[in-house]
Fold this sequence. Notes:
Elements: H1 18-24, H2 33-38, H3 42-58, H4 63-76, H5 80-92, H6 97-105, H7 114-129, H8 134-141, H9 146-169
Amino acid sequence: xxxxxxxVQPLSDDELDESxxxxxxxxxxxxxxxxxxxINHPGLMKRWLVFGNHILMKSSLPxxxxxxxxxxxxxxxxxxxxxxxxxxxxxxxxLTDEEIRRIKEGPEAAGWSELExxxxxxxxxxxxxxxxxxxxxxxxxxxxxxxxxxxxxxxVGQYNLVSxxxxxxxxxPEPGLPGFDV
Length: 182
């Protein structure tokens, strides 16, 4: 974690107004710190969730490949909260702890399929240059549909944005959330 204390305080249930409380009921179980923090700006949160829901739940990318990209951008952005949340989601999508560790090593690590390596390269390129190179684009286009390639770019962009917010706001991990040591 970059910050040991939040800059934007997560709101407790008793700090929510009626409309915030009603909005928060759409989450199953106790709200995570990201949502308790974002509810400080309900209008932004509501609109961001529409896009975030597409990326996380309705993307044309298979969940495993989506999580490889999300974990890589979270790691590159040093977003500990994002990393920990998506270690859990990545495991649910079929990633092993060994594969999750290799995501930190990047596309040059041994054991990646051509598609997985290309996703990691594309994520690195988007993070470093805000652009996928011609060679990487060609490699990906042989393996993914146009919609999947579009979803890949928007996935990396969405989680780069989320990482910036989490890091800057100081969103703190819930107890037991995995760290970068996975």
